[in-house]
Amino acid sequence: MAEEGGNGVTAATMVVIREYDPKTDGERVEQVESSCEVGPNGELSLYTDLLGDPICRVRNSPAYLMLVAEVVKYGVDGTEKTTEIVGMIRGCIKTVTCGSKFSRSKTCETPKPLPVYTKLAYILGLRVSPFHRRMGIGLKLVSGMEKWFGDNGAEYSYIATDDANEPSVSLFTGKCGYSKFRNPSVLVHPVFAHRLHVSKSVTIVNLTPSEAESIYRHRFSTTEFFPRDIDSVLTNHLNLGTFLAVPRGYIWAGPDKFLSAPPENWAIMSVWNCKDVFKLEVKGASRLRKGFAKTTRVLDRVFPFLRLPSLPKIFSPFGLHMLYGLGGSGQLYTRFAKALFGFAHNLAKDWKCGVVATEVSSEDPLKLAIPHWKVLSFTDLWCIKRLGEDYSDGSVGDWRKSQPGLSIFVDPREF
């Protein structure tokens, strides 16, 4: 880019993609974030407060990077004049399950499914200032991040975006070579002023991280997107615990006995504290909407025994808890999962969170069983790209062409 100087001399403007510097870039990155509130209709928008840490949403991943796009203007004499950060992107890399294969056995034992892993990269938090869009900056940021992915051995890259976000979908599928891959559902439920009922026929066991890891690896390691470093997730300070719902009267005697002789019906779930990472705020609401929401809270607080649904303070900064690792077995499995949800809601109430959220596969029966508000929930779109054709197809083949499974394992570190 170039600009004409007063004496007919050309002054240059360049876009530089570089690594984020926390010592000098924090305030300028926050300004860009503030200008990029997202919303489906132009009336209401969702603002994310990263609590002073622009890398917070990838910091807990095994490997991560943040890049910024900086406009550098040079004077007519060729010296640097001004710089302005106009965009940013985050990315992380981890190893996850992309499929399964059956073990080979020389005995008559039934072959067991084993996970097939791949090194997967994830792009999130792509932002470009509204005043600098349609200039190819988003594409430059994605290309810069993908180079880092390739240099670190990632085989696939994927992104998650709102299915209704046409500019984002167009950028990744139209210009960056991604293809639509999965359509999970983000289920969001407000935290009421009253506590939810948890069935007395269900006992909830608070598992230790090692107990939770044992159950997850034995029962869910072949689930798509299962992180191989699940132990790091479960021992992270943001993980509030893993909870197992079993029939009343069942005596917990450790994971070994449970795995060898589980009860007929059971469910498991972990809780991640996003509240200490970032906060959300819905902006653009009318006085009428704010007044209505406040009225529901007052009534719920004054008459908790009525169990009235109420809308929390989403028009001011609020926190959320992420529910992940949901699974189980048995004909009554979804009923046990619903009991876990009630327990998680009450836990979020104690932590003064505004909402609880989870993400499930479009094929998962939990989509209908887990309580959620449709007005707050939405369909996610995951797009995927193969970063190199020289990788072995292995036991799974090209992951992009695989059929979706019944469930997915959502990593809370990237929500």
TrEMBL record:
InterPro entries: Acyl_CoA_acyltransferase (IPR016181), GNAT_dom (IPR000182), Plant_NAT (IPR052810). The keyword Ribonucleoprotein does not apply. SUPFAM superfamilies: Acyl-CoA N-acyltransferases (Nat). It comes from the Eukaryota. One of its GO terms (molecular function) is acyltransferase activity, transferring groups other than amino-acyl groups. Residues 15-197 form the N-acetyltransferase domain. Keywords: Acyltransferase, Transferase. The keyword Transport does not apply. Belongs to the acetyltransferase family. This is N-acetyltransferase domain-containing protein. It comes from Deinandra increscens subsp. villosa. The lineage of its organism: Eukaryota, Viridiplantae, Streptophyta, Embryophyta, Tracheophyta.
